[in-house]
């Protein structure tokens, strides 16, 4: 314990430029107003007869009423932001100003002097909270399984611009801009000459941007989503890519999402202000809009087995969005990055290894041959358990795959 504390102190001194400020998260002030609104929100007594509850697929009519009712009850009766805040503050939070933007990040250090620096990048409707289950697994500061793969990491988890406690993105701000300030965070602010990246959803677009744009500092990337639009069956056939029976299933899940699960994307890309302001002071509205994604895009076994994506986890995510007033600023990412998911596949200009994990219930599917098109793919693994939020859906499997970076790390 003493050794750990001293290690943290000396590391804190190392990053001690005047602009880095330690932060304790305290969003308690707006809690009574939020809970008051939750309590006073009336929901219909019964589902409409037309509502299709193909639970856990993109083919449903959306958020099931019964689920929304039970989440509302839980939010009022047993959810405690104070308690969540305490556990969130167990990690070391900082803010730093980069190019005029306040950037919030967590940094947790491994005790291993050879630990690899890594930045973990969340997406929408995620937040830095999404990455918390990986921190202890990757720093190996919890008793770890013995074995040959003992690679550990110094972990940095920022909030993307417009999310959580980072400032809203300025006008005309795009993914490459976010990649640039995060490279500054890792190199100039935190002093790492080289580092690894991991990203999911929009975070994968930032991670992939870092991988290609900063090919001297980014020495490895791990992704579980790609910033390239998945291909449909005809496009795959045109490339002579044939799928296994299981892969056909994954492909169908993508096609269902593209056909019936994509409305939020168009809305957020074209009228971010309308949805953002409609839900601004409406926690139950934010719950319906956000929880639908957590539920439909994750493994149907959500909250069981390795999955920590419980109802409480959903409520603390939505509470964070509400309490930091970041729903409106977060959805602007779609409008500001209309070409964020490219339709033409290109290879990043780097020799750095790319590792990829495919989780069965994800909404996008890229077979190995396709991932090979975009980078120096050295590792591709399919997982039966997990979906679009693998850091919550199946944190041990994701951490094991990220840890494989150690095998290819040369610095
Ligand atoms: C959080 O801030 C409120 C004021 O908004 C204050 O009353 C409370 O003591 C603070 N909580 C902590 C844990 O610092
Ligand atoms: C954003 O881009 C538009 C179109 O190029 C330009 O007119 C505007 O001045 C830019 N805004 C800022 C703040 O740079
Ligand atoms: C696909 O296979 C066919 C038949 O073998 C071949 O003619 C065609 O060039 C291939 N297309 C690509 C994109 O490799
Ligand atoms: C790294 O990026 C630079 C600038 O885009 C490029 O000239 C160089 O070829 C890249 N390195 C590799 C190994 O692709």
From TrEMBL:
InterPro entries: AB_hydrolase_fold, Epoxide_hydro_N, Epoxide_hydrolase. It comes from Oidiodendron maius (strain Zn). Keywords: Aromatic hydrocarbons catabolism, Hydrolase. The active site is at 201 (nucleophile), 334 (proton donor), 388 (proton acceptor). One of its GO terms (molecular function) is epoxide hydrolase activity. One of its GO terms (biological process) is epoxide metabolic process. Pfam families: EHN. Residues 21-131 form the Epoxide hydrolase N-terminal domain. This is Epoxide hydrolase N-terminal domain-containing protein. The lineage of its organism: Eukaryota, Fungi, Dikarya, Ascomycota, Pezizomycotina. Belongs to the peptidase S33 family. The keyword Isomerase does not apply.
């Amino acid at each position: 314990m003493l050794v750990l504390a001293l290690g943290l102190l000396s590391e804190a001194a190392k990053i001690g430029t005047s602009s880095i400020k330690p932060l304790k998260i305290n969003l308690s002030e707006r809690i009574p107003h939020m809970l008051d609104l939750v309590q006073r929100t009336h929901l219909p007594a019964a589902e409409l007869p037309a509502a299709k509850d193909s639970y856990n697929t993109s083919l449903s009519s959306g958020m099931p009423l019964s689920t929304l009712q039970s989440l509302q009850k839980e939010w009022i009766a047993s959810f405690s932001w104070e308690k969540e805040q305490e556990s969130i503050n167990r990690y070391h939070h900082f803010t730093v100003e980069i190019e005029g933007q306040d950037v919030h990040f967590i940094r947790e250090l491994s005790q291993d002097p050879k630990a690899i620096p890594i930045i973990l990048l969340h997406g929408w409707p995620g937040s830095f909270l999404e990455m918390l289950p990986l921190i202890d697994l990757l720093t190996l500061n919890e008793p770890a399984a013995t074995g040959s793969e003992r690679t550990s990491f110094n972990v940095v988890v920022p909030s993307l611009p417009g999310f959580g406690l980072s400032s809203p993105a300025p006008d005309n701000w795009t993914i490459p801009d976010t990649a640039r300030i995060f490279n500054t965070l890792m190199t100039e602010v935190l002093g790492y000459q080289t580092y690894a990246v991991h990203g999911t959803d929009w975070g994968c677009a930032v991670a992939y941007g870092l991988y290609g744009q900063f090919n001297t500092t980014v020495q490895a990337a791990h992704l579980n989503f790609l910033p390239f639009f998945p291909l449909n069956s005809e496009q795959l056939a045109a490339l002579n890519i044939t799928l296994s029976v299981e892969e056909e299933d994954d492909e169908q899940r993508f096609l269902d999402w593209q056909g019936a699960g994509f409305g939020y994307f168009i809305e957020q890309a074209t009228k971010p202000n309308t949805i953002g302001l409609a839900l601004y002071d409406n926690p139950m509205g934010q719950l319906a809009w956000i929880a639908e994604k957590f539920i439909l895009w994750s493994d149907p076994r959500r909250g069981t087995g390795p999955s920590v994506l419980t109802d409480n986890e959903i409520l603390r995510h939505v509470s964070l969005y509400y309490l930091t007033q970041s729903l409106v600023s977060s959805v602007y990412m779609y409008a500001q990055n209309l070409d964020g998911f490219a339709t033409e596949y290109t290879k990043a200009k780097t020799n750095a290894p790319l590792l990829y994990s495919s989780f069965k219930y994800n909404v996008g599917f890229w077979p190995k041959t396709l991932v090979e098109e975009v980078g120096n793919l050295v590792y591709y693994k399919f997982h039966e358990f997990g979906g679009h939020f693998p850091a919550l859906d199946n944190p041990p499997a994701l951490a094991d795959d990220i840890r494989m970076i150690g095998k290819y790390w040369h610095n």
